[in-house]
Amino acid sequence: GPCTECSCSSGKETDKDTSNTKKKENGDRSFIPKIFFGTRTHKQISQITRELKRTVHSSVPMTILSSRDYTCIHPVVSTSGSNRNEMCVELLEGKHGKSCLYYHGVHKLIEHHALQSAHRMYQAWDIEDLVSLGKKLRACAYFAARELMVGADIVFCPYNYLLDPQIRESMEINLKGQVVILDEAHNIEDSARESVSYSVTESQLRAAREELDFMVNNNIRQKDHGPLRAVCCSL
Does residue 25 have a pLDDT over 70? Predict the structure, then answer.
């Protein structure tokens, strides 16, 4: 029956009760923000997850966003050096008649974490743990980490995943209404500069100038290519 200490005893509802009732009637759930924890390096993420594992919050759903350099387990792509991203995309698009069997096994890692959580065996993990499990299950750790973000309460990632709008878009990170923690935030200035900076070699500039010379000399969009050639020459 109704209690005697609050408004429900008199059959009246407070504004808060009414809004909650409306949410239930509409089938809506109250919004619970995620915690995005940004660090300067991947090594710092390892240190933080190790400390998290020692606390009572070790069983909280989490994930770690990282680059293919740290998470790719494909035997060819992972040893390819600087063009891992391009090779991965080619495999996903099925170019040259090949595909990535590890990508198609992502669900194995997701199901493993769900099973651990259901049996209350879930504990905070590190990138190395996920990669090791991915190799055992023949499942892609890179895309599994992204999939786990949907149900995660805590998302660990390097600064640039939060600062760089292009990375945020590609990783489908929406920070509106979320909690953002920046570890050692005095490093943010350098990270922000790096995210909008780009390095080119002298040989790349010479190659670009030669291509622009060809465009201009053959009357191909001279208005566009002329100023670009001038920039290359001045550099």
Answer: no
